[in-house]
Write a structure and sequence with these properties.
Layout (H helix, E strand, L loop, with lengths): L1 H35 L4 E10 L2 E8 L2 E7 L4 E7 L1 H18 L3 H14 L1
Length: 117
């Protein structure tokens, strides 16, 4: 009888510690989310060149900067105007739409091919 009471006590303590861990994790996540939102710095896009080098497009207030980022330093490569950002976004959408087939159409072709067999 005493071992059953000990088992129930351990299970209750385990449940309490598990709940405390969950709520602490949620609280820390919400704290970090609110801490970093509303900042004037935003990483818009990053492209990896090799293991330790990246090209990043960063928005700082109203400016869009192109940065070369490596392990040891950060280099300003250039600045984009809002018009250039809009043009590059539109051309990227057009390129993606022209170069990539519609996923639904490809899926339908594959489905038709397998349904005939």
């Amino acid at each position: 009888m005493e071992s059953v009471v000990q088992l129930i006590t351990v299970l209750i303590i385990f449940g309490f510690v598990l709940a405390l861990t969950y709520f602490t994790t949620v609280w820390i996540g919400n704290y970090q989310k609110t801490r970093f939102t509303g900042t004037n710095i935003e990483l818009l896009e990053a492209q990896r060149l090799n293991q330790n080098q990246y090209i990043q497009v960063v928005r700082i207030c109203d400016r869009h900067l192109i940065l070369g980022v490596s392990k040891d330093n950060i280099t300003l490569l250039g600045e984009l105007s809002p018009e250039e950002m809009q043009e590059s976004y539109v051309s990227l959408q057009n390129t993606a739409a022209a170069g990539m087939p519609d996923f639904k159409a490809v899926l339908k072709q594959v489905g038709d091919r397998f349904s005939k067999k």
